[in-house]
Amino acid sequence: MLAKSLVAFIGVGLIAGLFFGIYLIDVKSTGQLVFVEGDSISVVTEKSDFKKNEIINIKIINSGTTPLTFSDASYGLKITGLSGILMYSPVSPQVLSQLSPGDEIDFSWDQIKNDNNSALEGLYKISVSGTNSVGDKVERSTTVTIWK
Fold it and tell me: Where along the chain do its domains lie?
């Protein structure tokens, strides 16, 4: 016969494992692309976990039904640490760019920061920002993890 405390610890472990699993399914969901009516933009990567020095391919997609305007040719792409410190932003000319509904643009990041150092292991936020026809900001972000 098992001790009461052992049964209690196993029960708590099973329940905690169930809730932690449900939490991870919600947090690590890779459903980055959702088409909606109105203004929307999506940031899509082929996966969420990358090895160090692996190329990260990023797609910026107008997933809404209205055209979006961007202040430069980088389409408002910024890669930051979770603390908000800018790690990378493509160098691009300051020209107005537009993305029609359903259009997409591709970027690649070689994990080299703006200061020419390699990105360290950790979580990074990839975000894009544009404006709709009346000047309202439309933005979206996703996170990726760089592993050793």
Answer: 1-30, 31-147
Report the topology of domain 31-147: Immunoglobulin-like (2.60.40)
Tens-binned pLDDT, residue by residue, of the chain (148 aa): 678 888 888 889 989 888 877 766 655 545 567 788 999 999 999 999 999 999 999 999 999 999 999 988 899 999 999 888 999 998 877 888 899 999 999 999 999 999 999 999 999 999 999 999 899 999 999 999 999 8
Instruction: Report the relative pairing of strands 122-131 and 137-147 from DSSP bridges.
Output: antiparallel
CA distances from 30 to 6, 8, 81 (A): 37, 35, 19
User: Dihedral (C-alpha) 111, 88, 47, 31: value to the nearest 10 degrees?
Assistant: 180
Region of residue 36 (left: phi > 0; alpha: psi -120 to 50; beta: else): beta
Shortest CA distance to 99 belongs to which of 131, 68, 133, 72? 68
115 DSSP assignment: T
Note the pTM of the prediction, 2 decimals: 0.76
